[in-house]
Amino acid sequence: MTKKPILIICGEPNSIFSEIIIKSFKKYKSKKPLLLIGSHNLMLSQLKKMKIKTKLNLIKLNSDLSKQLDTIKINILNVDYKFKKPFEKISSKSNKYIEKCFDVSFKIIASNKISGLINGPISKKFFLGKKHQGITEYLAKKFKLDQNFAMLIYNKNFSVSPVTTHIPINLVKNRINKKIIVTKCLLISKFYKKFFNRNSKIAVCGLNPHCENFFELSEEKKIIEPAIKYLRKRKINIDGPMPADTIFLEQNLTKYDVILGMYHDQVLAPIKALNGFDAINLTLGLPFIRISPDHGPNTNMLGKNKSSPKSLIESIKFLNKF
After folding, report:
1. What angle is formed at CA 14 by the lines to CA 13 and CA 16, rounded to 5 degrees?
2. What is the rounded CA–CA span in Å between residue 64 and residue 5?
3. Beta sheet of 56-59, edge-to-edge order
4. How far is CA 20 from the centre of its chain?
5. Bridging pattern class, strands 150-154 and 280-284
6. Is 321 exposed, middle or buried (0-12, 13-18, 19+ CB in 10 A)?
7. Which residue from 120, 92, 138 is spatially nearest to 10, judged by alpha carbons?
8. What residue ranges define each of the domains in the chain, with the CATH number in brackets?
9. How many C-beta neighbours within 10 Å does residue 103 have?
10. Residues whose CB falls within 8 Å of the CB of residue 85, separated by 6 or more in sequence, listed in order
11. Contact, 282 vs 160, CB < 8 A?
């Protein structure tokens, strides 16, 4: 019986993803079949430009994929995309193509069991625009999760999760509340219990510098501390609020599995500074595992055949393991 495939949405067509997909496949042999959702012709054209040779197994869309999937080659389900050159500038031209790639993957998920979904880097400026803050929120809306989801930037040594994601810093204080902090922490705790069979240790950052009370009632006193108190009653192993300027010191990192921050860069900047791109972006709360390599389209490296596949390899490894 064919193993459940790992779906990989190729994402932004003018990105480094064609390159790192092939590099990943050559460096790490997945036990589960890989099924790309994207343009067959574009991928072959980009690989030819970089003088990379490979064979792709072309798949047709139907309810039963098991007889078509190849475990030795990379499988691809073609989504048409018109292009003039192998690499062009990122623009809104690719929006319909990217959306169709997601729609095709949703159809496959609806009628087939999968091991998980990986999506390649996507331009927030052109594809998402003002409709969605990020792909995490895009998927949450598609699957009607409301606020019952969490972004987890996972690394085996330590992970981070922002309460608010891709929003301007001046909006953060109005978007955090007890309910949303509790929801994120419960999803994180459930994830570690399910996949690693252990209770996670979570540290929660404050919002204000040094968690100080600069006015009558700070967010720490009004929102964060009550959320932590409630979570402790639910037997969640959690500390905080803790100052964000010291929580990432080495002696603190060894104590925790996850550091929860109030806003995106509060926790993503430190983890990238410490680990580079050795992490994967997980969306918790979906009815399947969704992962995104922790990097963008990287247009400066287009066609140079110098990009690292490390984050994508870690994404595929995770889905092979679990």
Report:
1. 100
2. 12
3. 56-59, 74-78, 34-38, 6-9, 116-119, 290-293, 280-284, 150-154, 159-162, 258-261, 201-205, 237-242
4. 16
5. antiparallel
6. exposed
7. 120
8. 1-145+286-322 (3.40.718.10), 150-279 (3.40.718.10)
9. 13
10. none
11. no
Tens of pLDDT along the chain (322 residues)?
Answer: 467 899 999 999 998 898 899 999 989 999 999 999 999 999 999 999 888 888 899 998 876 787 899 888 899 999 999 999 998 888 889 999 999 999 999 999 998 889 999 999 888 788 866 666 788 888 998 999 988 999 999 998 999 999 999 889 999 999 999 999 999 999 999 999 999 999 999 999 999 999 987 777 899 999 999 999 999 999 999 999 999 999 999 999 999 999 999 999 999 999 999 987 788 999 999 999 999 886 777 777 777 888 888 889 999 999 999 8
Contact predicate 120/7, CB 8 Å: no
Q: Within a 13 Å sphere around the CA of 120, how many CA atoms are in the beta-carbon half?
A: 25
Predicted TM-score (pTM) of the model is: 0.89
Measured in whole angstroms, the distance separating CA 273 from the mean position of its chain's CA atoms is: 18
Question: Which structure tokens are listed for 208?
Answer: 């204000």
